[in-house]
Specification:
The chain is of the alpha+beta class and about 190 residues long. It contains 9 helices and 5 strands, in the order ααααααααββαβββ.
């Protein structure tokens, strides 16, 4: 059932993405096909759902002040080249699971990061500039919208690779929303 609903959501997302140079290249249709055949399986995996659910429980009642403090700590650690907060997320089981998915993609996936119900990173394959994604379109156009929301962003050059960040809501099979995931997709590697 999730796969059928996801397919419908992806079709709608493909129709609603803004036009521009990348739109002419048809990256949305290629990404939609890739997501349907390669991502829908692990998106609802027990590993991913359990990790996001647990962080939501751990952060129950978190205030904006506490979120800001965590985000500032992440940024400071990033400038220093690491620290306990970054290590706790980059070294957790979900991040290891996501690194396996990225490696198995054969270069199609450039990064994956999963966010909780307030937009804080739960697990990730690569470092992000900040911990808090809740103020960005990748979270705002997915988790708060619906259990099946998909946001395919424009293509941007990143280190010589044309990448589109594609974001989806993370939800239980019954539609209960838990967070979001962003997947960097190398559009040149799609067939």
């Amino acid at each position: 059932m999730r796969r059928t609903v996801l397919a419908a959501a992806l079709a709608a997302a493909t129709m609603s993405v803004a036009s521009g140079p990348a739109f002419a290249d048809g990256h949305e249709a290629k990404i939609t096909a890739y997501i349907e055949s390669n991502i829908s399986g692990w998106l609802g995996s027990a590993e991913l759902i359990a990790a996001v659910d647990q962080q939501n429980i751990n952060h129950l009642g978190i205030t904006s002040t506490e979120i800001n403090r965590l985000d500032q700590r992440w940024r400071k650690e990033r400038k220093r080249g690491g620290g306990s907060l970054i290590s706790s997320i980059m070294g957790n089981e979900l991040s290891a699971f996501l690194r396996g998915i990225k490696a198995a993609s054969g270069g199609v996936i450039t990064e994956i990061f999963v966010m909780d119900n307030v937009g804080l990173n739960v697990g990730q394959t690569n470092g992000t500039g900040d911990l808090m994604q809740g103020d960005e379109a990748k979270w705002q156009k997915t988790y708060p919208v619906s259990a099946h929301a998909v946001f395919i962003d424009e293509v941007e050059e990143d280190g010589g690779v044309n990448v589109s960040q594609t974001s989806l809501t993370v939800a239980r099979s019954n539609g209960f929303r838990l967070g979001a995931v962003t997947i960097g997709i190398n559009v040149d590697a799609l067939e």
